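Lecture 7 notes: from sequence to structure.
We start with the chain below.
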Amino acid sequence: MTSDLPTLPDGVTSAVRVPILMAKIGRAIEHRLDQNIIRLGLTPRNAALLQVIAAHPDAIQKEIAQIAALDVSSVAWHLKQLEGDGFLERQPKKTGLHGARHHLTRKGRSAMLQIEDAQEDLATKLEPLLRIEELRRLARALEIKA
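Predicted structure tokens for the same chain:
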């Protein structure tokens, strides 16, 4: 059975091989997801902000920035871009609330569903390669709680 996993030259020790292979696998997964996001007319950063807004629909710009770990000015720029592209709509602030709320439009919800489908598809393809016990062993080896 041939593997699509990256390979390294002979002579590279396991202490070096494992982190390098994991980094390559991570980059390959990220690249595959980014390709799907770009096909939707989004950048990876914009897609991440859509995911934050979908998960926190009443969050104001400052809260979105905190959740996404970005500068408020950067979030403001991206939100304006998403709004202009029709993925978001801004709800005017109500009395007593600070800042406008942002909500996904039909186009934004459709994009989110497609992103989630791409993530699920990739997970389905990876699942046979990494069984749950293998993931647990890997997590233990990396000292990560799973």
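Points to note: The mean pLDDT is 81. The two ends are 29 Å apart (CA to CA).
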